[in-house]
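queue> pop job 88
queue> type: inverse folding (structure -> sequence)
queue> payload:
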């Protein structure tokens, strides 16, 4: 019995010996330094910065993942905000320092769009671009809303009878010149000349399909070749982004713009892609995009991306913004164009 008591006493003494201070600190996260905490957050910050800075390196070979990322690229900004809040709650100097990378990348890519634009200049045009929707129940109200913005040009897509007649009649008093080809049209305060169809039909599409228009605007500042286009829709599914037809159509439109003999060119249309989307490179590599404004235009109920575009050659798109909702699933966009 004595021997048993002695062994028990030794066991109690061993259990009562305090652990070394370092042993507990290694496993007790709250006692880590500010430079040791938040390693996962720091990694997430670096990865987010990498996606923004090197988005072109994301391959498009599988599901057009690169284009899908680029459609929502500005929305990596809110991701940075979430990481910032978590880093502050975690009191992680490591994560906060790493967040400087995505902040710098987002500011470089999109910060300029938030700056205030310059005031109107003497050689400017105001243009409106709107996919009015072939299911719009109030074409007259939509036409009046667009005219109230006071633009020089109005470009419309998804024009179908009998709504087309309503748009023409409602816009006629302020916009006596117009041209329509297929389901796209252009209304102008200034005379139009040489209106014609631009063939942007991708392979495999049959039947009536005309979504490209070119006309020369006889503006007071000189002739302007105005293009109106509606590129094929894209779909997001389990396999990624289905945009092959859109990309092919963008290539055809890009070649038409490249061959344009009139020096100043405007492109207005529902391009079913953002200006960051590499699928629109045949256009964005040849034309200027908006210097100021995000103008997310789709879907109208919760705008997530601007797929309604205004681009220019030998001119500058100073600012773009959205107008209030109409009867369409897109928001109208209005842009100020400074002519060179």
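queue> result:
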């Amino acid at each position: 019995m004595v021997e048993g008591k002695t062994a028990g006493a030794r066991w109690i003494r061993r259990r009562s010996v305090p652990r070394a201070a370092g042993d507990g600190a290694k496993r007790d996260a709250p006692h880590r330094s500010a430079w040791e905490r938040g390693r996962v957050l720091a990694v997430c910050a670096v990865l987010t910065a990498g996606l923004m800075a090197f988005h072109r390196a994301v391959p498009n070979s599988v599901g057009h993942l690169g284009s899908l990322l680029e459609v929502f690229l500005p929305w990596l900004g809110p991701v940075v905000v979430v990481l910032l809040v978590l880093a502050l709650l975690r009191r992680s100097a490591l994560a906060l320092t790493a967040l400087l990378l995505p902040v710098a990348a987002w500011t470089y890519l999109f910060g300029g769009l938030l700056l205030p634009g310059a005031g109107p200049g003497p050689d400017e045009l105001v243009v409106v671009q709107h996919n009015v929707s072939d299911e719009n129940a109030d074409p007259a109200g939509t036409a009046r809303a667009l005219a109230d913005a006071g633009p020089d040009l109005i470009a419309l897509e998804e024009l179908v009878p009998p709504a087309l007649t309503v748009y023409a009649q409602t816009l006629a008093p302020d916009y006596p010149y117009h041209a329509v080809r297929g389901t796209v049209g252009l209304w102008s305060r200034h005379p139009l000349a040489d209106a014609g169809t631009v063939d942007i039909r991708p392979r495999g599409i049959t039947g009536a399909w005309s979504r490209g228009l070119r006309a020369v605007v006889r503006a007071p500042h000189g002739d302007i070749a105005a293009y109106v286009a509606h590129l094929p829709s894209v779909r997001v599914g389990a396999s990624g982004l289905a945009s092959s037809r859109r990309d092919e159509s963008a290539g055809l439109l890009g070649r038409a713009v490249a061959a344009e003999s009139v020096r100043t060119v405007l492109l207005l249309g529902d391009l079913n892609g953002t200006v960051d989307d590499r699928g629109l490179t045949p256009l964005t590599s040849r034309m200027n995009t908006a210097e100021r404004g995000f103008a997310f235009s789709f879907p109208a109920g919760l705008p997530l991306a601007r797929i309604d575009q205004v681009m220019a050659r030998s001119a500058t798109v100073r600012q773009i913004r959205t107008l209030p909702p109409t009867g369409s699933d897109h928001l109208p966009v209005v842009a100020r164009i400074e002519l060179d």
